[in-house]
Design a protein that fits this description.
The complex is a heterodimer. By secondary structure, chain A is mainly alpha-helical. Chain A is built from 21 helices and 2 strands. Chain A has helices at residues 2-10, 18-42, 64-87, 97-123, 127-146, 151-182, 187-193, 198-214, 224-230, 233-243, 245-258, 265-287, 292-308, 310-313, 320-352, 363-366, 368-382, 388-402, 406-431, 445-460, 466-473; strands spanning 45-48, 59-62. Chain A has a two-stranded antiparallel ribbon with strand order 1-2. The chains are: A mainly alpha, B mainly alpha.
Amino acid sequence: MTPLAGVMLSFLLPRRAAGIGLATSAAVAGASGLFVAHVARHGATRYAIGGWGAPLGIEFVADGLSAWLVGLGAVVGLAVSAYALSYFGPHAGGHDDDEGARGRHDFWPLWLFLWAGLNALFVSGDIFNLYVTLELLGFSAVALVALAGTRDAITAAMRYMLASLLGSLSFLLGVALIYGAYATLDLARLAEASRSDPATLVALTLMTTGLMIKGAAFPLHFWLPPAHSSAPAPVSALLSALVVKAPFAILARLWFDSFASLNTAALAAWLGALGAAALVWGGILALRQARLKLLVAYSTVAQLGYLFLVFPLAREADTGFTAWSGVMFFVAAHAAAKAAMFLAAGNVMHALGHDELDRMAGLTRVLPRSAFALVLAGVSLMGLPPSGGFLAKWLLLHAAITRGEWWWVAGMLAGTALAIAYIMRVVARMFAEPSTPPKAAAVPASMEWAALSLATLAALMALAAVLPFDLLRIGAPVAGPLLFGGAP
Amino acid sequence: MTLTPALLYALAGCALFAIGLHALVVQPHLLRKILGLNVSGGGVFLVLVAIAHRGPGAAPDPVPHAMVLTGIVVAVCGTAVALVLAGRVHRATGTMEPGSSPAEAREP
């Protein structure tokens, strides 16, 4: 388990400058790669830090889910780090000096802190440790939003902070009740002991609600659009790609691992219905936005709805693994595509000085690579082959149709239709012929390439889809064959 | 189920949690919201302390106590970050009640 130790240790080093930040990013990404390789080779492992096992010590779990998410964090994190190097670099024009200087000094420690929190959360094996990592994540995410320094960003960060604290307090109260009922905090031990009684139900309700606030699940998404749209571009990318997925990972662990016996059909249907509602509501709001970054942020609200379809679809053994891997693919595809879109939107801001959709005509001429990145990421969000989004939706649709639950199919199709509508709106504006060619500042090449490479990854993800399924199966809490071939 | 002192403490903790939550939602002033969150946090800690109780005379369970200590550290950090942010909101917008300012009214 040296990789984990490497991940933790690298964050203890002091880092102030971008150079150290980038070197640490590379080291963390490398360690994450080793971690994924370790899980792939040795299967699910538990690791007691300092030799103190549960119930007293803290245990880390390494399984398919944590490897998948840690690996995803490494890919997105590395690309965003490369982007941020120019974005917060000394020569970055386009935004005023004050913001640039502040960002240069503060982005790197905060981002590495955020990354540490994320990785620790993905491998945490007990619910109190999950609470602490959630708070680490929340604090650094809020500070990163406030980094933009604008009036909108500060108010959005304040709102995000209050929502985040409320969510984690609710989660903590649930943790307290769980400990009162079971005298353990360990996820695996809870799985053996879980029973259906009032205290457990109240605790799970509190924890789920808290996590849904933090994960911006509909209808508790109110804080997300202002926070994600007013943050600096690399921060928006990280928040949308990785941070909102963390509470979801905890929800999946709670409901599929520890309290699977309490995951009733009614509850799963309720969570799935909220997901479907998010798809439609978020899609409609995304369609109505006048600014590119707000559109992308509302699109996140919508797309998070797909994640919640895992609850109804992965419950039964026949479609369990299909829906599970579909959602995991969705997490990865959405992370890559959404990070690419926010980075590209940052390039647009940088070049044009605004992100108003109505003034974007001719963008394809001045920023061809960023425009292409937006299109490729859009392809994945819409779910056209061979993108990651296509594969994810294919698996989810397959699961829904196999189970004969047509309403989920309808929800997914509605979400897809709305996604096509709002992506096409962006594409149409970009390709429009301008009356006067837009005046654009130069954008550093690395910023364009970071966006484009993530978008390419999202758009071609399905082509490399054979390997990850074995990884995802390691320690997966759901069973069942992978329903893939043939028309649904 | 009889009303033991531990249960009373736990119920009081839940009540505190609810009071703080109410303040967070209802009060427009940022300081009051932050204080509301602190009250809620105190309620959670009270529940934890009540859970640690293992009958009269018996030594209390140390694990919830450790959780309360960690929770207090986290709560202090959270309050500090929230207060700094509130100060910056005040400087940027000139008000401590940003919910009523036009900049916030963007969500349809």
